[in-house]
Amino acid sequence: LSGLFQLRQNFGRLFSMANPTLQKMNDTYKKEFMLSEDEVHVSYLHPYPVTPATTIIESKNEKVKCIFKLPIDEYKQLLFRAKRTAELLCKNIPVNRCALVTKPVKCGPSQIKIIPLHGVNSEWEQAISPEPEYNEEYPGYCNSKNGPRVSEESLTNIQDKVRSKLETTSISYEFFGDADDKNLFSRIVRGEEKQWRVWEDSEHVAFLTPFPNSPEFTVVIPRKHLSSDIFSLEEKDYEKLIEAAYKVSTLLKSSLSIDFTCMIFEGFEIDYAHAKLIPVITKNDYSEKSNINLPTEFHPKYIGYVTSLDGPLVPKEEMQKVFQQLKRK
């Protein structure tokens, strides 16, 4: 396995230099392990998965490095393909749930990773990474780990900055559900918990988490208590949530002077539908940052967080076995 990790690191060095040979190899993998394709996307098994059967949904818009810079219709098509892919993985691997991770890319079109959550039961059980992490500046990857609690003053300063770009600053505590629902997010919607709300519409609310793993980490939730398994949501609820995430990402970009946002669907800390938005904070041009020193991770089972990091290169014969599983009717 150590040899595979070394091979992956070597490929990472080549990739950071946009090596044409590696790009050709990557195109070969896409063709050989393609799961679906249309005018907007191509999906295929990831040759460097962080967990078995990780799948890539890739935009065909070569000019866009982050899904939130796609036109809204293309963005929604890509996110609905992510839903279909998660359903396929759950059925054929099989697993009970999948996560989504997306971050900006340096070369090539924007991508979404669908990560099967191996070892997760059908009944929800809370799972939290025991290792906190905090990065003041974007490290080249994103993950769903919690960070240390930040000061209320810092949260309020960020909140004020974001809300200054809102067209209306009125706040509604309307909740579409049981008034006795004790879930933390239900209480936040109803205004019963201390919070740093930055945006809302008639059906969703966005707020800053007090335990961010990077500055300005934002959570988007619906005003009704829906399942934390976002890919299992009804089509309309799913569509409204991804539209809300798009709007909040646009707001974060304009208010915080950032270019890109990462997004994660996971749902094992709070059993309530939510999208995590992580602004990419960097002192230099993002395209100038190198991937050379990025670590690799591989986890056979879900360990309480998900990450955008890659794993070691998987031998083709192993990929072929997974591919045949996924192609079963």
Task: Provide a concise account of the structure shown.
With 329 residues, the protein is α+β, with helices and mostly antiparallel strands. It has one domain (2-326): HIT family, subunit A (2-Layer Sandwich), CATH 3.30.428.10.
Structure in words:
- Strand 4 and strand 5 form a beta hairpin.
- The protein is an alpha+beta fold.
- 40% of the residues are buried.
- It has helices at residues 2-16, 20-32, 72-92, 152-163, 184-189, 235-256, 316-326, and strands at residues 34-37, 41-45, 55-59, 98-102, 111-116, 197-200, 204-208, 218-222, 261-265, 275-279.
- It is globular and about 55 Å long.
- The longest helix is centred in the last third of the chain and has 22 residues, at 235-256.
- It is built from seven helices and ten strands.
- Helix content is 30%, strand content 15%.
- The protein has one domain (2-326): HIT family, subunit A.
- A ten-stranded antiparallel β-sheet has the order 1-2-3-5-4-9-10-8-7-6.
